[in-house]
Amino acid sequence: YSTTPYENILASNPAPGVTLLTLNRPKSLNALSTPLILDLNAAMREADSDPAVGTIVITGSEKAFAAGADIKEMKHKTFADVYEHSFIENWSEATRVKKPVLAAVNGYALGGGCELAMMADIIYAGEKAVFGQPEIKLGIIPGAGGTQRLTRLIGKSRAMELILTGKTFGAQQALEWGLVSAVFPPEQLVDEAVKTASMIAGNGRLAVQAAKEAVNYGLQVGLDQGLLHERRLFHSLFATEDQKEGMTAFIEKRAAKFKGK
Ligand code: CO8
Q1: Are strands 64-66 and 18-23 parallel, antiparallel or unpaired?
Q2: What domain of life does the UniProt record list for this protein's source (predicted)?
Q3: Is the CB of 110 under 6 A from ligand 1?
């Protein structure tokens, strides 16, 4: 991962088991053009299928995580263009990754940038992060989950107000509302995200993926169905070597050596 075949993102391996994907279109504040999304999807698929990778961290620059979908690309599109080609449908590929995804947000996370962050499993923010869904000011609405995920994450009244006014909000507010789980000085943000990603990558892969699946599945179904799914996944982990190793290590008072089997 020291060099990258991608034009719009940088891929690196800052710690064992961690892939760091850095959005890299600085001149347009990481506006999420179709080529960038295709690069990101390909890089995420690659990391997801690489047995050496346990966790994926997505970040941008200190100025912008991503200032939204590329307005210059969208400006001339017609209804027929966007409908026929299912514009932005492939954005949600980020949510189909089985390994945990952390978003480390410095600077602007607006429109599609905020939506991309919300597709991650954990969001950390830099102190100067600015979140928002300003699409209404462009004569459109959020199209990659903003009306749905933001509402589930921070509640209806707040989400409505933000989506209808296009107002932005900062990192502290995001922390208070539970949109992000931690806030750090901008220059420490990526290191902190990588640290957490490393901790996750050190746990048993199968258990980690099952936990992610259980949480995300539960957000989409009723409680009974979610609990049943959780229980079945829980049961299934007793078929793994990692469960035997984890429990044996506890009893022998040593660190577990998980194999992802
Ligand atoms: N698309 C294209 N170019 C952009 C975008 C963008 N979203 N954001 C910034 N840029 C470009 C600017 O045009 C400018 O380029 P140039 O130098 O050629 O003029 C360069 O980046 C720097 O931007 P600014 O000069 O504006 O920088 P400022 O520091 O003054 O302002 C802001 C920063 C506040 C972030 C400002 O750039 C801004 O408001 N950007 C647009 C934010 C926005 O409206 N985002 C929502 C976009 S719509 C959307 O995301 C829809 C999602 C639907 C689903 C996803 C569809 C793919």
Answers
A1: unpaired
A2: Eukaryota
A3: yes
- So which residues are the catalytic ones? 69, 112, 115, 135
Residue 237, classified by CB atoms within 10 Å of its CB into exposed (0-12), middle (13-18) or buried (19+), is: middle
Tell me if 142 CB under 6 Å of ligand 1. Answer: yes
C-alpha separations of 147 from 77, 85, 140, 170, 219 in Å: 22, 22, 12, 19, 15
pTM: 0.95
| pLDDT range class, residue 95, cuts 50, 70, 90 | very high
The residue whose C-alpha atom lies closest to atom 41 belonging to ligand 1 is 67
CA distances from 112 to 97, 139, 249 (A): 18, 15, 44
**Does the ipTM exceed 0.90?**
yes
Query: pLDDT digits over 38-49, tens only?
Result: 999 999 999 999
Categorize the per-residue pLDDT at 4 as very low, low, confident or very high, splitting at 50, 70 and 90: low
CA distance from start to end of the chain = 25
